[in-house]
Amino acid sequence: MFSKSCEYAIKAMIFIAQKSKDEARVGIKEIAKGTDSPEHFVAKIMQDLSRRKLVHSVKGPNGGFYMDHFDLKTSLADIVKAIDGDSIYKDCVLGLKACSEKNPCPVHNEFKEIKKNLIMMIEDNTIGDFNEKLDSGKFFLRNK
Amino acid sequence: MFSKSCEYAIKAMIFIAQKSKDEARVGIKEIAKGTDSPEHFVAKIMQDLSRRKLVHSVKGPNGGFYMDHFDLKTSLADIVKAIDGDSIYKDCVLGLKACSEKNPCPVHNEFKEIKKNLIMMIEDNTIGDFNEKLDSGKFFLRNK
DNA sequence: AAATTAAAAGAGTTTAATATCTTTTAATGG
DNA sequence: CCATTAAAAGATATTAAACTCTTTTAATTT
Ligand code: FES
Ligand code: FES
Question: Is residue B109 a part of any domain in this protein?
Fold first, then answer.
């Protein structure tokens, strides 16, 4: 569904949002541990998200990543597009050069609704929406 | 969504089904051309599908791949499971070790419905179902 | 039986995703 | 301004997916 990079990105963003409630900065080690992700790899991904302004960072002592009130409005779709591009928007499920109504593959109509629901879902859910969920203690960013 | 192998597999199966209507055998070259897939690669995939009895083959002159009436009942899910395994059934969207109600990731509930619809769709649609669609001339296994 | 055909099998290559390690830059605190 | 901290950047390594090529096996046709 999503690439590993994208999975790490979403988990990291949700993790940072959670910790950013009280203006705290989150270090890359903490993110990696909190989301059970490879530290150096998720660091690379955070650099990318940071360059794209989906998250902010400060270097040096007491530095790390954080989100402001505006950043919490980032949707899952924003993250997916930043990391995986728009392939889930435009690619044909069977790999035709393009997905279109003009030249549809045999499963085009069957997948149309599913893709629409998927896209609606990731556009509607923002990073901030997950804060309460995690607070409730009924949802997790890692297991073990 | 699916691996490239799986895309080729589905297209190849639909293609063979179409040609099997009149007991014909379809060679690997024809499959590759008809589905715009790399010949040797799709050959490997067909070997796999053949070993798993989702399709039949005969060697030698006038040989090739074919499907009998029973094979047309193969669902898209059968092909997906044969090639990509059951990852779309059991994997967590965010890569947790397992997807479960006990230890759900933050997006578990949002994705549950989408995954359910996806699975229902691929279980309900059989290879035979696509014969008429292709006959209608309104659906394609390749473009250009 | 020999020649031919086409899939099966095996082995190898290329490419992209994933992951790790090292060096540099920027911020802070003493 | 020096030492420390932590992210940014760069470079390298590993793995798996995607793709290709060659040889073998099993049919058919003559
Ligand atoms: S053409 Fe294949 S999904 Fe639209
Ligand atoms: S736990 Fe993540 S999708 Fe179910």
Answer: yes
